[in-house]
Design brief:
single chain; 196 residues; alpha+beta; 5-stranded mixed sheet; 3-stranded antiparallel sheet
């Protein structure tokens, strides 16, 4: 059904599987089957991320929001984004839900592509080479990303598959142009603070 759409995949990162699920819930779709699906997704994964347009406003204080937050909390998960994702309504209806996965940064970015913002969620994963005690950390300059990202060519594409391919290419190029890597040599038992 187009009222509830779900795509999942598993990623092997740092010797563990992380289940990544994209979820869309139409605004009028019944909340109970959505909650059943979220419960199933969270119950079947140790490390998982659910993200998408769920159409539950976490800024609102109502039974639906309380039930949603209580449900994900039951499974040791939480919503990690807290900035408005749909500026025209002042709501947070697009979510990144994390269970057992840490993020080093979350950024919400307005675009002309949609009335919803994009959410950039950076996993807290460092490449670590134990023998050499070297850590490579990637830093993204989100101001530069906003300057270089360009979706103008997307408005001319009617084919949804080609549009998704172009959007993915634009985002990938913008992230690559605004991200740098730094490598640190560590002494034993030294930790690098996230702000380094």
């Amino acid at each position: 059904s187009h009222d509830l759409m779900i795509v999942s995949l598993k990623l092997w990162i740092n010797n563990q599987w992380i289940k990544l699920t994209g979820l869309y819930r139409a605004p009028r779709y019944d909340i109970n089957p959505l909650f059943n699906k979220i419960e199933e997704l969270l119950d079947n994964s140790t490390n998982g991320i659910i993200m998408g347009d769920i159409n539950i406003n976490t800024r609102a204080k109502n039974n639906q929001t309380e039930s949603f937050l209580s449900l994900i909390d039951t499974f040791g998960a939480c919503v990690v984004n807290n900035q408005i994702t749909r500026p025209s309504s002042g709501t947070i209806i697009d979510h990144v839900i994390s269970k057992g996965v840490e993020f080093s940064s979350i950024h919400t970015v307005k675009t002309d592509l949609s009335d919803h913002c994009m959410i950039f969620a950076k996993l807290n994963i460092n490449e670590q080479h134990k023998k050499k005690q070297i850590i490579t950390h990637k830093f993204t300059n989100y101001e530069k990303l906003l300057d270089v990202i360009d979706f103008t060519s997307c408005s001319e594409i009617d084919d949804p598959d080609l549009l998704l391919e172009r959007i993915t290419l634009e985002i990938t190029n913008a992230v690559n142009l605004s991200t740098t890597s730094r490598t640190f040599c560590l002494k034993s038992h030294v930790k690098i603070a996230e702000w380094c």
